[in-house]
Write a structure and sequence with these properties.
Blueprint (H helix, E strand, L loop, with lengths): L3 E4 L3 H13 L4 E4 L2 H10 L4 E5 L7 H11 L4 E6 L6 H11 L3 E4 L4 H12 L1
Parallel strand pairs: 1-2, 1-3, 3-4, 4-5
Helix pairs in contact: 2-3, 3-4
Length: about 120
Amino acid sequence: MADILVIDDDEGFRYMVCKLLSRAGYNVLDCQDGKKGIDLLRKNSVPLVITDLIMPDQEGIETIMQLRRDFPQVKIIAMSGGGRGSPEIYLDSAMRLGASRCFSKPFDAEAFLESVKELLQ
């Protein structure tokens, strides 16, 4: 069983996050957009979803709203490097919609892993 689902359209960043989590001992699934992420979650029981906010097909905000509606028990970490505005604008929206934690890209790996650990306890 996977512990974490990582959703990010930036392949290099997604790889880095998955590698960080794998080295910390977590089993990780990953995909490039929210639609595929929701499909993966329907097939796999995962207690934590880490999602980017600015993505094609289905953005992170939409994904968070769908997760809260369809999988209310799932914990969510939102991350953003910004888009048209600063990352804080997007991250504030993510928190209001149900994200458990938020991180601006790039983030401090130690603080990120501590949040993952807390949310999976």
